[in-house]
């Protein structure tokens, strides 16, 4: 009995595994997640339009080259595990998901994505709030 039951479970698991493999993308690309350490955050550069205030269109990135700072979104923050409350605590001091300003050359660029950077929290100049005007 145990053999039949064991074989049945094994066959079911094999079918489930094959089904899950079929749902995987054919190009075996890896998903990477970055966890900053210390007082650092992972940010993504927000792309501005390619039009100046006067209405002229600029080549890709030209507007950013003229700026001293960049508007970025905080994607990940450094955390520490708090045993008393059994959850992770943000130790960076920068809110997750916030829009912040950083100097144009701040941080370390991520090799696989030119819009991502790891930035020390001391390089964060300001938190930016967006307010809709109607």
Characterization of this structure:
With 134 residues, the protein is α+β, with helices and mostly antiparallel strands. It is built from 2 helices and 8 strands, in the order αβαβββββββ. It has a 6-stranded antiparallel beta sheet, with no helix packed on it. It has a two-stranded antiparallel sheet with strand order 3-4. Strand 3 and strand 4 form a beta hairpin. The longest helix is centred in the first third of the chain and has 22 residues, at 2-23. The N and C termini lie far apart (72 Å). Mean pLDDT is 74; it is low at 1-26.
Strand portion = 25-35%
Q: What share of residues is helical?
A: 10-25%
CATH superfamily of the domain at 40-128: GroES chaperonin
Shape: globular
Radius of gyration: 23 Å
Secondary-structure class: alpha+beta
Query: Uncertain regions: pLDDT < 50 for 5+ in a row?
Result: 1-26
Mean pLDDT: 74
Strand order of the largest sheet: 6-7-1-2-5-8
């Amino acid at each position: 009995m145990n053999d039949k039951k064991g074989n049945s479970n094994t066959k079911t698991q094999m079918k489930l595994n094959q089904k899950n493999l079929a749902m995987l993308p054919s190009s075996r690309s890896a998903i990477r997640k970055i966890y900053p350490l210390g007082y650092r955050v992972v940010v993504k550069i927000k792309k501005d339009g390619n039009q100046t205030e006067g209405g002229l269109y600029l080549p890709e990135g030209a507007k950013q080259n003229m700026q001293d700072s960049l508007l970025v979104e905080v994607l990940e923050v450094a955390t520490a595990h708090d045993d008393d409350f059994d959850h992770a605590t943000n130790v960076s001091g920068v809110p997750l998901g916030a829009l912040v300003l950083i100097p144009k050359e701040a941080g370390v660029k991520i090799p696989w994505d030119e819009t991502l950077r790891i930035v020390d929290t001391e390089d964060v100049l300001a938190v930016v709030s967006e307010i809709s005007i109607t």
